[in-house]
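JOB MANIFEST
job_type = single_chain_structure
chain_count = 1
residues = 369
[input]
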Amino acid sequence: MTSSASVAGRHATDPPPHILVVRNDKLGDFMLAWPALACLKAAAPEARVSVLVPSYTAPLARLCPWIDEVILDPGSRAGQAAQRQLLARLRRERFTAMLTLFSTPRTGWLGWRAGIPQRLAPATKWAQLFYNHRVVQRRSRSAKPEYLYNVELAEALLRVLGRSPQPRPTPPYWPLAPEVVQSRRQSLVDELGFDAGRPWLFLHAGSGGSAVNLTPTRYADLATAVDSRLADAAIRPQWLLTAGPGEEPAALELRDSLAIRGLSAALLPARESLAEFALTLAAADLFIAGSTGPLHIAGCLNRPTAGFYPARRSATPLRWQTCNDETRRLAFSPPQEAGESDMAAIDLEAAADGISALVRRRAVAASAS
């Protein structure tokens, strides 16, 4: 039901707003847009929300409960014919407003040429000239999580549309019915022979080419340390190694390294699609990875996460924080005196302590429920 506050500044007979949200870059960035999408739907449930995304993230966009329509962006390298088709599509849709979460001159130009009356984006670079509403954020300072910057932009757009932002939605931003999660877990029991009574720790050693990560050897050190701590507590975990396209060699290297140390780990067989891979992550009791797309999928699902980040200002644990509940989130990075990308400087013993303590707490809570 729409609150009286949300209709202030508009007539009851006004048509529902049609909002275009642009997040047409990488997977992790797109997953961190889901809180903003949830924010829009909370304040304007009758609004039609479309997203402009690349074909790579489109399968996940189609699963997002806050999205009504997916529009494929052919990208800046596509030919003129494809660009004209996209522009014609945007014009046909007759959008009320456009919310650009990551601004580039091309997307700003598209919104302006499409005649979208209300266009809002961060006030960065000269691309902001294409927008009639701009919000100063200074994201390069990394003072807030990326998903919170996105939420603030969504709230600003709602005010432009005469809506009062509602209390901010809380995790999970990708809610799944319990039976869906149970089905995913049962699939792994059937496929890999997993014991449903033990904690399942997923480990993703790939980087997707966009994030500095631990080496497979360092991940093997970490897994060995975590396993020994949990074995001492009689909570022996099961390890599942995940990999994206082209990352299988790193996962195989990690599996072999763990085997040498006497630790058995299964390799997740390739899934038929990114959407199937993402839904499999709902079965994890803990997901361990660098600051990559899969880590942010797990966060959006509100699965417990342990992320490894460089100390680089633009890639800090705060800026690229997962959007799961605070009690389910761990982050590790090099000390200040180390090089900003010196992942070897991360204290793996401290990381193993934190991860094993989180797994123990959740195991105790599960046994008490």
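[summary]
DSSP finds twelve helices and twelve strands in the chain.
Residues 348-368 form the longest helix (21 residues).
exit_status = 0
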